[in-house]
Each structure stands twice: as structure tokens, then as C-alpha cells.
Amino acid sequence: MKYITKTHKKVILFIILIVLMNVAIFTSFRQSVNLSIYSEHDSKISFFYDNSHTENYPFDDSHMSQEYFVKSSKLQNIKFPLDLVNSNKLRIDFGDKSGNFKIYSLSIQKSPLYEYVISEKVFLDKFRFKNDISQYSIEDGTVNIATSGPDGHIYSTDTYSNLPIKFKNSFVIKELFIACIALIILFINKLLWLFRNLPKLLIYYKTIKEKFVIKNIFFKNAFNLIIIICISVISAVILDVVILRSIAKVSEFFKFDTVHHYFLSSYVFSFDRIYFFSSFIFIIGLIVSLGKSKAHKYRYVLAFILLILMVLGKFTGSSLGFYDGMLQGNTPSYQESTLLGIPQGIRGDEWATEKPYYFAQTNANPTLQYFNKNLSFAGNDMVVSAFAPVKDITVIARPDLWGFLVMPNDYAFSFYWTLRLILLFMASYEMGVFLTKKHRFGIITAIIVTFAPPVQWWLSQSLMLMIMSGQFAIVLFNKYLNSHKLYSKFISLSGIALFVLVYILTMYPATQVPLGYVFLMLFIYVLIENKKNKPFAFSRLLQYAVILIPIALVLYHFYTNSSPALHVIMDTVYPGSDRPWIKLPWDYELYQFVNIFTASIKQPDFLNASEISQFFTFTPFVVVVAATLIFKHKNKPLLISLLLSVSLFLMLISWIPEVPFFNKITLLSFTYPVRITYAYGYSFTLLIVCLLAHLEDKRGNLFSGRVPLIISSVICFLTLCIMTNSINIFSYFKSFSIGTILMIFVVALLSYMGFLLMKGNYNSVQSFIVLYLLLSVCSTILVNPITKGTDSMFEKTTMEQIRRINSADAGRWMVSGSPTISNLVTAQGVARTTGTYYYPDWEMMSIIDKKHEYINLWNQFAHIDMRLTDGDLEFSLLDHERSQKVNGTNRIVYIPIETARDLNIKYIFTMFPIPQSIIDKGDVTLLYKDSVDPWSIYRVNYN
Description:
The structure is a single chain. With 943 residues, this protein is α+β, with helices and mostly antiparallel strands. It is built from 37 helices and 28 strands. Among the domains are: 133 residues, Lipoxygenase-1 (Sandwich), CATH 2.60.60; 363 residues, no CATH class; 145 residues, no CATH class. It is 53% helix and 13% strand. The strands form 7 sheets. Strands 1, 4, 6, 7, 9, 10 and 12 form a 7-stranded antiparallel sheet that branches. A 5-stranded antiparallel sheet has the order 3-2-5-11-8, with no helix packed on it. A 5-stranded mixed sheet has the order 19-18-26-28-27. Helix 7 packs across helix 9. The protein is globular, with a radius of gyration of 31 Å.
């Protein structure tokens, strides 16, 4: 009877939950117009409606939907909320550019239970009014529409009358989902018990073992592996289909456009995304199954398995999908590169400059020679320029490029991205264990360093290589000093040599020098901690000398080959040998509060997201806590003292006026303040890890009474006051609807975390760690898109034509209209005259600018664009065709046809019309004009 009573209670509660959730569905339901549309180019769709106005009511902006972004070559569902009472007119606008569209369905959802469906034939009858429409027909069950002008639209005056009603099958799915949720709530305790005991169940569950008689260790491990794979796949499907779609829908409801855009792709099911997510969950499952000690022991095996899984899937975090917004014409072989996320246009150094150099090297230079004559007349140094793949001993300093030596481009590119992240994560893990002697803090350090804003925003650049290589070198040096076996010493010293080369050959002194001070402090700490191991014994000095030999030989080889390019760079206007000391804005430290939202809500317009990115330092709190620990302890904590000293030193240098003599003798003349902030930010991060590990062992509070509360409250209040006086920061937060609330919230959150740090007891430390991990991951998890392959670069109709023409009759190319597209053309493996030059091509420029009249415009790092002119030669900072100035390091060269011939230019790829006089003279011949993109190919004729 008691059992029946419990069952009845469960059933009643189950029914109540079902009813409540259905009430929530029906009360939150909004009537809507649902459009399923495909576009051949990126476009913006919008709707106009009437809402009970008179028959002659005109469509206007007061009754207009938001603009819905439709990505090229992708079926997309648009849901437009609209109150349908007394409403009957509807207009669909197709953006301000001509293009081709396919409408697969249009329906009006009046209830969660049913909808009105407009079939194809009814569609043409209903939407019979049109404007700037050149094609309007039905084919294979879809409505084909071609717009011919900037105001292409169709509209209906009796949209919702006499339409058939269709029951929504999705309502049944929702009810099943609701039932599942109700069951989860009812049995949450049992599910939590199951989750907590999952590792034991996977390995030691006796009933399963006895039932299947799994006594052999091989079969037991195989069974566990199958279980983990199944859980990984199921979890990935739930994550992709349920969680990510829910995030997209919620963000759309609250109008968080950036988050919604990031997860928009989740509306379309993707096996590639399932594979991507299941790979990570699979590794996590293996870690749980192995347990802490075995997972630590086999950590590099696990990392290698993840690397293999990612490379097989051809996954990267590249923003090369940005090309899809620049070129819409795709070949039949095209597959969209971006699986999830937003290609970051601001990271042009990655997708528009560096990666085209890589593929220009691999596509045109299969032997991967050190000098590439396609990129400059005399041969472009491919190590100095973006450090592209080369079959040379110097490539040993770039393990991430090794894949290009043996793999096809797509797989090598994935190897490049994945290995960088894995090496950084593992190096940070090793550093955390080294600093704290605790494996758990290794994971914490790995997460907060890997997901730090500067690391993620500059992921494709040299910062992460320096942090990774510096950390590995320090950890290996400590391992070497504690090794007693010869082979262990040899492996450690070999690793040190490799990572020292990686650090040196990143070739970016602006960050190398200040980071070098942090690693110097860690090096000193290793020496002092290991003084009993005699780090300066004669035998060790001999070993140091031996390991320096290969380092010196590689560097000598590099200098011998690259000294001409290095001297050219040193003599340029920019970057040159004298780097200006650019002061930090007075509110620069406060940009940390903006970092939290740049990837998820909005990028700032006062400075780009990469430049404002900083480590979360909690500076005032960390200084107070570290100083207190140092002064309270009789035995001064050496590591905390060293990290605090170097952090404050670098911070002071970055904020005081330039001291030329001091900067020169300390090598800080090679850097400038904003790059120094990365170094002391990283140092503060390591200091926080050390403090947390130190405070975790304390049972009482670090400060007595209400001191932490008072200090954190004062800092919170002062921070808010200062932020409201910062035009940049306050304007940023006020630019979106709940920005002011978020500003107050985030200041309060970081102040509360400072309060927890100052309390310093065990529970406070655990709370701080959880919040710190969430802060780090949530701030940057949306920075990088999930990308597969390189079709966005190569499977474009224009790029296909360039490869076809060049393979038939190779020649030098000139691109007119965009240095970015010029770099993409270069990536196809053709010889160039335009694009990004890391250092000037003196041979080419001496042909163009014979008297060096414009030397200050081209003797620098520059993005060169060339246009054919029937006038005189001109180096210009004004784009005459667009009637606007070019920015930054962009340069336009207007060249006569004679100069083009002097440069041996054979083909011109242009988005601007060639001067008619040049065409009339027969100097050029049109070879190809793209039907989708505004680009044409001309051949230069030689008499």
C-alpha cells in the first residue's frame, strides 16, 4: 500500500509538471511567419506588415521586422514574430543587392498546435505583386526568385485568407521532450547518484561483468571503450540538437545578436559538429574512466588521440570563412567551412595575411623552398614572412607546421591549429603542476591560460607560441635538474633546446622581451629550489654547452639565409628598428571588464577586440594578498615574491614615461606598453595560481574581521565611479539594452571574487576557482569559430578560374580592388605583384618607382593594391574609384599599361572596369567575367 501511495504521488506530480510546462508553452507562444529560404549570396531578408490598417495603408518602417541575415549557399529558417489579428498584408524584402533565392516553404503559425501552410502554387497567387524581380517561377517544388535591383520585394494583400490548416508534428516532439524533462526532475536524485558513480559503473559494475562474463582484461577494456563511445555520441547529439539550439533560440528572444549569430548554424543538423563534440567528450570519458593518476600518467597519449581525431575531421578555429562574405560564387564541390560560430574579420592577420602565405607556399612550391619567387621578384623569404612551411632545418622551431611537410593542405592546416592548442594546454598544465605540486592546479592553470582573452584573440600569432615554449622550457629545466638517469637528462635538454628555438624564432621582440623577464624569474626560482642538485657543476656546464651547439647552428643557418630580409625590415619606415613608445590610455586596465563581452555580445568600436584583450589580473586584490603573505611569513614564499616583483616591475614600466637609456640597457626599447601588459598579465595569472594553492591549505581567514568586505566594497565602488568617467567603456556598455546592468554586475562579480581571494580560507578558494574558470571560459569560448577544411578559400568560382587559366599558361597576376582578395589569389599558387608584403620587394618597386619618389609609402610592411590607369603613375592613399581614403598600411598604385608590361604582368583580376581607352587599343583582352561576384579576368597583350 505504501508503494502504491508513492507511485500515485509520482504520477500526480508528473501530471502537474506536464500541465505547468504546457501552460508555459501556450502563454509564451507568439504567432509568427516562418520562411525557409536559400540564397546564393549573403543577404538580408526583412518583412513589412499592416496590422489592422486600412486597405490603402502603405508599408513603412514603423511596421517592419528586424533584418535577418541569410548566409550564402545555406538553407535557413527565419521565424518572424507577428500578431496576426486583423492582419492580412505581408511583404518580403530581399535586401539591397540583386541575387537569386529559393523559397522552400512559407507558413503562418497561429497556435502551438497548428499552422497555415502556403503551398508553391498558392504562393505565386498570393504574392502576385513584385518589384525589381526578374525571375519568379516554380521549379521542383520550390519558388525561384531572382532580384534585379536594390529594392527587390514581393507582397500580398490577402496573405492569410483561405489557407489550409496543418497539424504541427513538432508539437508531439515537444510533448515528448516535456515528458522527459518531467521524468528527469522526478528522478533527479537517482540520476545524480548515477552521474557521481559513473566511473565506477564503467569499470567495476559487477552485475554487468558477471552477466557478460567479462573476465579478460582486453574484453573488459573494449567494453568500457564501447560504452564511452556511445555516451560521447549521445551527449554530442544532445549538446548540438538540444542545448546549442536552445541557446540560439533564447539569444534570439533576448536579441543577443552576436550569440544568436554564433549558434545560428546549429539549426541545421551537422554530422561534422557531432563528430567534433563527441571527440572532446570521448577524451573526457577516457580521463574519467582512467582516473586521476592514470590520466596524468597517460596525458600525452590522450592528447595525441585528440590530435588524431581533430586532424581526421579537418577541424580548425580559423576565420577563413570570412571569405564567404566577400565572394559568393561557389563551385559544385564547395562545402561551407564554418560549422559553428562567427569568422572574426578583425583577425585579418590570420585569415587574410598569414594563411594565404602558407598556401601560396604549398600550392606553388611543392618543395617548400626557403625563398618563393612567386611572392617577390627576387624570391620572398618565407621564414621571415609569416614563418610559412619550409623544408629547412629552421622548421624544427615550428612543430605546428610539420604537418605541411607530409600531409595534404586540409589535414596539415588542422594539424597546425590543433597542435598549437594542445601544446599550449599541456605546457600550461605542466606549469601549474610545477608551481603548486598539485595535478588539480595543473588543470586549472591550463584552462585559465588557454582561455585567457589575449591568448584566444591572438591565437594564430606568436603570443601563444612564446607562452607555450617558455613554460615547457622552464618545466623541462626543472626536470633535468632532478633527473638522475642519463637518458632522462638527454631528453630534457633536447626538449629545452627545441623550445628555446621556438621562443627565439617567433621573431617578435615586442612580446619576447617582457615575457622573457617573467621566465627569467621562474628560471631563478628553479635554480634556487634545486641548489642542492648543483645546477652549476662542471659536468652540467659541459652539458649546457653541448646543447647550445645545435641551437647556435640553427640560428646561424637562419641568420645566414635571412639576414638580407632582416636588414631590409630594419631599414623600413615601419616596423623599422626604432619602435615608438605608445602610451597606454588612462583607462586601459579597465578594458578587462569589456573583455568579458567582446566575443558574446558586442565588439568595441573604440579599439579592436584583439588590442584591448587582457588577462584577468585582479591586481589590487592580488597585490594585497601576496604582500600580506610575504610579510606575515617568516620564511618568505620565494615563488610568490619573485612573481609579484616581476609583475609590479613590468606594470610600472608600462605606465611610466619612456626612459630611453634604461629601456635600451634592459632591451625594453624593443617593446612598447601594450605588449608589456601581456607579460605582466600572464605573470599575475601565475601568481594567482600560486596564491590559490597556498591559501587552499589554510583553514582560517587570511584577514580578520570585515577587512576583506570593506576593501572589496571600496574597490567595487571606486571602479564603478571611474568606469562611468571613461567615455570608451561607459559608452560601450550603454550601447546595448542591458549594458548598464551588465557593467554593474561584472564589477560586482570581480569585486566579489577579490573578496573571496582576500578571505583566503578553503571554501573561499574553491568558490574563487569555480568563478575564475567560468569567467575565463565564458569570456572567450565564442572567439573562435569551428571550421572544417579550406573550401572558403579554394572552392570559389573565381579562384577555380584563376587556377585553370594559370595552369594552362602560367604568368604573373595583378589584383585590383582588394589586397585581401589579392592574398587569396596568391594562395592559389600563382605569381603576384599585389597583396601583403612583410617587407618591400625592392626589385619590383624599383621598376615601378624608378626615382624612388614614393619610397616612404612602400618601404614598409604594406598591403599593396594596383589599378590600371590611362594616366600617369601614382602612389595613392586615396581610393579614387571609391572616393575614400585607405587606412593603416594600405597603399594603392595606379600604373600605366607600360609599367604593367615592365613588370611582366600577364593577368589582371579586377573588380573595377579597365579604362575604356586601354581596352579600345587592344592592350588587354577579357578572359572571364563572373556571373555572381563582381570580378573579371583580363589578359595583358604584348606586341
